[in-house]
Amino acid sequence: MKKQKRLGQHFLEDAWVKKLVNAVEVSSEDTFLEIGAGLGALTLPLATKACKVIAVEIDQNLSEELEIKTPRNVKVVTADFLNIGLEKLLESEKKPIRVIGNLPYNLSSPILFRLIATHNSGLLFSDATLMLQHEVAERLVAVPGTKLYGVLAIQTSLHAKRTKLLTLPPGAFRPQPKVTSSVVNLRFHSNPFDANTLRVFEWLTRGLFMQRRKTLANALQPLISERGLNSRQVLSFLEINPMRRPETLELDEISALTRHLCYIFQEPIKPT
Known about the structure:
39% of the residues lie in helices and 19% in strands. It is an alpha/beta fold.
């Protein structure tokens, strides 16, 4: 069967499917939302253990073939995950959904941020197990003070605990990709910010990490100069050394800086 080239589809070999399903620790009470079901390499093993699987596949030929061979506890949906109405799709589900997906490498970041935004909107996910290009996975789970630590790791860590489960060689797929893949689990938790504070957090993080090799004082100053603030004074008030670099900031330090800016501005910030 000819696959749509733009989708970047690579299908997981059976031996690695077993390793992934075991790593996910499926319960008979679980309902899974699967992103990019393909020919059902993950769908069918999940269906033998889970209560229900909602399998989303954009390729109509693949989804039609999958629907023929799936058991009754699998619902196959032909749709683009980035555009599908998740609220309507999942409206009948009574408890948080587990997400799993072998993501197209070129769409992994948009899908990840949609999951986070959907979780924040009140349609709760308990966790997401995602297969990603190895380099993206490393940036996702990176820690402060490392070269890969940046916006992706920080913004994700605000919403979820990040754990790398598996690393898969190119030979784990057909056709073989040119890169190594990794599986990351995100265990979602509640977001501590209201809507405006969250926007400021995202604006602040992007702004600081556009100048990650500068000192914190120099990276922060252009962001707050229009408000007549001095970055060294702001950082010193929070007992953050202004000579540090953005890539050393812990999540709780960025969160404290976000709250402090919201407080001293006394009005919603309108990030650009």
